[in-house]
Amino acid sequence: MKVSAIRSDEVYSKIMSAPPDRKNDIYRYELMMPFERKWACYNVPIKAKTPGGYDVIRASELLGHIAPTKVDDTQKQNIQLISDDELAKLQNFPQAGLPYCAGYACGYHFVKHYLKKTGKSIVEATLLPAKEILDAGEDFWND
Questions:
Q1: Does a structural domain hold residue 136?
Q2: SS3 content of the chain, % helix, strand, coil (to 5)
Q3: Are 71 and 114 members of one domain?
Q4: Which of 79, 83, 89 is nearest to 102 (CA)?
Q5: What is the number of structural domains in the chain?
Q6: pLDDT, position 63
Q7: Sequence-separated (6 or more) residues with CB below 8 Å from residue 86
Q8: 3-state DSSP assignment of residue 143
């Protein structure tokens, strides 16, 4: 599996400037597709079999996220990096059901996996480019 960094703020900016008939596909294929295997664990398809059916867009709406078709310039202030619910609440952003420090916990386990796999020390890893660490740790995401 190839690991790629996703800048959600950049994807949302792209959605913001897209014509209405392209917004859902940008969300589906640029923001959600990299997580297709994780969505599949919840039996959520990337695209519904029928128009208006259950898919990643509907699931995201049910979690309190704004529909891609409603993302426009009025949402510019809401574009942010993903954060846990506690931080989101402090910043008056919608909560997404993420536990405290979810991003840090994921990063911690990824780095721990990388260090064990490569035998490098944390000092050595700190000096490496992120791409080198991400490339070497691709198999972390297979579970």
A1: yes
A2: 60, 0, 40
A3: no
A4: 83
A5: 2
A6: 80
A7: 100
A8: coil
Structure tokens at 81: 């990096």
Global model pTM greater than 0.70: no
Does residue 95 form part of some domain? Answer: no
Q: Which two tokens stand for residue 130?
A: 């992120």
Q: What is the pLDDT of residues 57-69, one digit of tens each?
A: 999 888 878 889 9
d(CA 123, CA 101): 23
| Structural domain harbouring 61 | 8-81
Check: CB of residue 42 under 8 Å from CB of residue 59.
Answer: yes
Residues 76 and 20 in one domain: yes
For residues 76 and 106, state if they share a domain. no
Amino acid in position 47: K
Query: Residue type for 55, please?
Result: D
d(CA 3, CA 130): 11
**How far, rounded to the nearest angstrom, does the alpha carbon of residue 67 sit from its chain's CA centroid?**
15
Name the residue with tokens 């209405």.
20
* DSSP line for 7-26: -HHHHHHHHHHS-HHHHHHH
The verdict on 16 and 51 lying in the same domain is yes
